[in-house]
Amino acid sequence: MTPAQAAAARLARHLGEQIANGTLGIGVKLPAERALSVQFGVSRSVVRKVLARYLDDGILRRTAGSGTFVAALPRGGGSGALPRTAITHVSPTELMEARLLLEPLLPVLIVRHATPVDFERLQHCLEEAERAPTFEEFEYWDGALHEALSQAAHNGFFTLTLRLMTEVRDSGEWGRLKREALTPARRRRYQQQHRAIVAALCDRDEQAASAALRAHLTEVQANLFGA
After folding, report:
1. Which of 46, 145, 45, 139 is nearest to 103 (CA)?
2. pLDDT digits over 121-153, tens only?
3. Nearest-angstrom CA–CA distance, 146 and 134
4. Which residues touch 149 (CB under 8 Å, ≥6 apart)?
5. Domains of the chain by range and CATH?
6. Is the whole model's pTM more than 0.70, yes or no?
7. Which CA distances in Å does 151 have to 45, 75, 192, 212?
């Protein structure tokens, strides 16, 4: 292996580890190609080749004018806490019940620990969701927003727990229900609710954020399964 190949391998391994352990969570923007080039001592063309492999696998996604973002966990990565068969046996109803119990607790930790970078990430997810042209794009950025909320809490247990919720959301049945329930009017409503949640967090108002998050999830639950 040449020095350049070794450096490329280090970069690929570094990105894989950072994504798998949650340091680079879903929705997080990667450093610029130039920064990675300097950090690992490789040309920008080598950086592009390494990133291309992750892009092809769907682990990264590139947004024109914005940058490259983490889109999914590596295959066989994830938290490793549950086998795939266990995840697919969690019903959408069970998932929604768990989300209603856990996610409204996040604002307490976010208000206490979130950094300006966390708030920037939340704003980015909001903006991308609002401009998403398709259901799939909107659903991706909706999930990225909730992942960003868990990351902003800076609590490893919550991050792992909510990542399992994301894996259940990606299992298929959830997507079918969401597609059937998501009318244009409901999508606009969800976007307004997301903005209210993030605005309250940016104001460090944990009570308003928690109430807004609970109201949003309750409405999603009613739309998915009936009042």
Report:
1. 145
2. 899 889 988 988 888 788 878 888 888 898 899
3. 19
4. 103, 106, 110, 122, 162, 197
5. 3-70 (1.10.10.10), 84-225 (1.20.120.530)
6. no
7. 31, 21, 22, 19
